[in-house]
Amino acid sequence: MSRRALIANVLPARHERSWAETNRDVLAGFIRAYAKGVEAMCDPKNRPIVEAILVANAAGITQELAAKAYDKARRSRLITKRY
C-alpha cells in the first residue's frame, strides 16, 4: 500500500489527511510505535504488564476481569501473534 493510500485509510477526513501529508514523519513514527506496542502486548511474557495497565486505566476493571479480557482477546484472535 502506498503512503498516500495508507494515510487516506487511516485518516479519512480531508483536514486530517492534509495534516498527515504535512506531518508524514510524525504519523509514520506514531504508526510504528503503535504497532510495536501491539506486538509487545501480544507477547505472553508481557501479560502481567498488560493486565496491570488495564486495571490501572480502565474504570471498573479488576485483576480477574483483566485476566479474562486477555484470555478472550487471545481466543478471539485479537491477539494473534504466536510466540
Structure characterization notes:
The chain is mostly helical. The chain folds into two domains: 39 residues, no CATH class; 41 residues, no CATH class. The chain has five helices and no strands. Helix 4 crosses helix 5. The longest helix has 19 residues. The two termini are 27 Å apart. The relative contact order is 0.09. The mean pLDDT is 82.
Topology record:
Layout: H1 3-10, H2 14-22, H3 24-42, H4 47-57, H5 63-75
Brief digest:
The protein has 83 residues and is mainly α. The protein is built from five helices and no strands.
Average predicted local confidence, pLDDT: 82
Largest sheet: none
Q: Please state roughly what percent of the residues sit in beta strands, choosing from under 5%, 5-15%, 15-25%, 25-35%, 35-45% or over 45%.
A: under 5%
Low-confidence stretches: none
The number of helical elements comes to: 5
Rg result: 16 Å
Number of strands: 0
Number of domains: 2
How helical, in percent, are the residues? over 70%
Structural class based on helices, strands and sheet pairing:
mainly alpha
Distance between the termini: 27 Å
Element string (H = helix, E = strand):
HHHHH
Question: What tags apply to this protein structure?
Answer:
2 domains, 5 helices, 83 residues, 72% helix, mainly alpha, 0% strand, elongated
